[in-house]
Amino acid sequence: QQQVKQSPQSLIVQKGGISIINCAYENTAFDYFPWYQQFPGKGPALLIAIRPDVSEKKEGRFTISFNKSAKQFSLHIMDSQPGDSATYFCAASMRRGGTASKLTFGTGTRLQVTL
Amino acid sequence: SQTIHQWPATLVQPVGSPLSLECTVEGTSNPNLYWYRQAAGRGLQLLFYSVGIGQISSEVPQNLSASRPQDRQFILSSKKLLLSDSGFYLCAWGGRGQVGTQYFGPGTRLLVL
Asked: What mean pLDDT comes out for the span B19-35?
């Protein structure tokens, strides 16, 4: 299957709190797992990504946790800020035609960080 | 640094009219190029990708076509738009040495009436 399942659909977190978004996949051919942040009316921006041979990757306040055996991965946003309010998409990549890749996206999580 | 441009930013077209959306990339050569569509409140769906000039692969059957006349130019077209073609169209590029990493443009919002 090509699906990537993402939850929750929406999330409200207080400023300074931890935001957690979860994704699950079925196809073991996926070999790269990026997260994208999208503000209204804008294109998605690459936030952080991980390969399946790594269990965790941290960049600033953003951490990806990856569980290969469970085929699950999650995004943690520490010390969430109002500026983090956006829609977050997980994705899984599969190679296509040599160097090209196909990203399969989750359905998105709308994060709102309140004061 | 690399930059990706899309135009127009917004487009309102009648059903049955033709479509041409353009995407250009600066600051890189021989990129992989992609067209995605995003329905309101939904994730992104890959429509086409290209690994070189004149090389187009389609991921889903539809009313659209794509062309790559130059190394850093990718065009999305339709001869006759349908209501269901409305959406947010995003172009993305990826470097050949960075399989899996894709960078998106600002998008074109298309409304077919």
From this structure: 95
